[in-house]
Amino acid sequence: MMEKSIAKDLLSIGAVFLRPEQPFTWASGIKSPIYCDNRLTLSAPEVREHVEAGLARIVRTCYPEAEMLMGTSTAGIAHAAITATILGLPMGYVRSGSKDHGRGNRIEGRLEKGQKVVVIEDLISTGGSCIEVVEALREAGAEVLGVASIFTYGMQRGLDRLREANVENHSLSNLDALVEVAADEGYIKAEDKARLLRFRDDPSDESWMK
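Now predict its structure.
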């Protein structure tokens, strides 16, 4: 099962930390038992190969009409470039904001109106940044087929926002698979599984910490 295989890869290189006893604090202020840094996959050739092959598989199977890949800035850029190389597709990326010099581009790479695009994202939590990228591409005239991402928390808020924005996402792995592998591999205690899934269901409810 790809979800568990990628979860095992991420855990093995420390790209994902599970720390229910000492929660991380996100920029939003949310206390989280998990921290995910998929940039570390770029430094681990074997894991990187699995990730990029997986992203290419998602594009081939879920978005066979794709004509171009667009990475999210900055974490998705390298993954979009490698995956585009595997697939023989052009790529570009979307900045978090327009440049304040030169042509002031927000979208980098030659994007034609009507071009069928897949967004490559490293991580989806609440879905906000991903949706911003999709909207920027739509405003530029692209037909965004959907998103291929490495990992999703599967939070209900994120799922709702993606659905409301009419954005389809397929991820290589998710929190449910990660929790199963982490328990099996001894990264967490078996009793922590339910706590982690309570966090997924409602991050604002800190009862999972008890």
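The longest strand covers residues 143-152.
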